[in-house]
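Aim 2 progress update. The chain analyzed this quarter is reproduced below.
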Amino acid sequence: MPYEALRPEGAGVGTHIIGRNTTRRGRKVQEAVAAGHNLLLIGDAAATLVDVPDRTVQTVVTSPPYWSLRDYDTADQVGRNEPLPTFIKALVGIFAEVHRALADDGTLWVNIGDSYTSGNRGSRAPDKKNPARAMNVRPPTPEGLKDKDLVGVPWRFALAMQEVGWWLRSDIIWYKPNCQPESVRDRPTRSHEHIFLFSKSERYLYDIDSILGPNGRRLRDMWDINTVGFPGAHFATFPPELVRRCILIGSDKGDYVLDPFLGSGTTAAVAQANDRRFIGCELNPTYIHVVLERLNSE
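Predicted structure tokens:
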């Protein structure tokens, strides 16, 4: 996709799209950031983040692909069928670039789900209550785990991030009152996911009064937020309210918000609606059209 710009209705600055094969891509990213433009970067996160200048971003809100749960039908995607250690290493490497691009008092909010071992089955049949769970390929069972084990992906990821220098500040439980039904009969239906709050430094921007809990209390680490469907091409989205909380707590108006796994563009849309600028990276060019329609409509 060639480099182009548009001005979504209501946006104070243009949204610039920079393709993976754009000549002078790094220079174009730097010029757009210097001018305060929003950015959509097409390509895998590790490659596109290299072009984002140091300390540009104030907060990051993202949900990377979940391991062994979805096939996004895109080459070079992470989480589809690579071994678990390879997946964790890839994510930590991507967030190393995020660390560089993040302000010294910046924060990183990562929504990540868990999965169960495959018993070394190479595929997964669709669940009648959740057809999207079907996959033609699946990674092998991680060493030391058994068939039907809960893998513990979120905490394996969080501890790996902690080991490379991130401050792990909170494990927020996202409780889904309207969670997806499951056909299992030998364990409870899963109704929560993790949101990890990381910081780059010991002290960081955290606007404690921007979001309050019930009865005006300070926000606690259990968030009851319904899932919200999105009628676009991307079937795995997190709800705008979840993203709004992270953005308002971790940034001020005019700051840059980053999502290295942009998908259907929830983070970009919420940032725009709250007077923030955004940078989004997306591997699949098909989703860029979804994002642009969303930015224009919202």
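The domain at 4-297 is CATH 3.40.50.150 (Rossmann fold). The chain has one domain: 4-297. These observations will guide the mutagenesis experiments scheduled for the next reporting period.
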